[in-house]
Amino acid sequence: MRIEPNESKYVYVDSATLYGGYPNVSVNTGEVYSFSVNPLCKWRRKFLKFTAGGTNFPFAKRSKRRVKSAPYFALCGTINKRDDQQFLIGLKLNRYEVTEGGQLNFFANKARREVHIGSGYVILEIERIK
Q: Most CB within 10 Å of its CB: which of 6, 53, 57, 61?
């Protein structure tokens, strides 16, 4: 799916996928996007609920998270499923400039081995600015 300038689309992101986001969003170098998630959308891990902003758990090791600087279970994104293109979205990210063309992918920030731990989804609004 392509997003035109000044247009927004919604993407469904499941917490139990390694790289999620349906439908897929195609981007080109130099395009600028804003991302936002309704804080009422929640992910779950057992009896705990998280917004896309994530949480800082003392027992969730920072070294095991895919994006070390981001909170546990925070919404993050990447381009072409590359580890060196990962970025924090959280509940809102304004003016993200794409550095490489390809597919946008999204995930809950947790260890790769925990990919199937948790349930729920968030609805991400993506707006192309230019």
A: 53
| 102/61 Cα distance (integer angstroms) | 31
What type of residue is 86?
Q
* Tally: H helices and E strands in the chain: 0, 10
Is the Cα torsion angle 24, 26, 29, 33 positive or negative in sign? negative
Classify domain 8-128 at the CATH topology level: Jelly Rolls (2.60.120)
**How do residues 68-124 score in pLDDT, each as one tens digit?**
888 988 999 999 999 898 999 999 999 999 999 999 999 988 877 877 777 888 999
Q: Of 31, 29, 38, 30, which Cα lies nearest the Cα of 10? A: 38
Query: Of 19, 18, 37, 42, which Cα lies nearest the Cα of 126?
Result: 37
Report the alpha-carbon distance of residue 106 to residue 15 in Å, rounded: 9
- Continuous segment of H or E residues that includes residue 121: strand 119-128
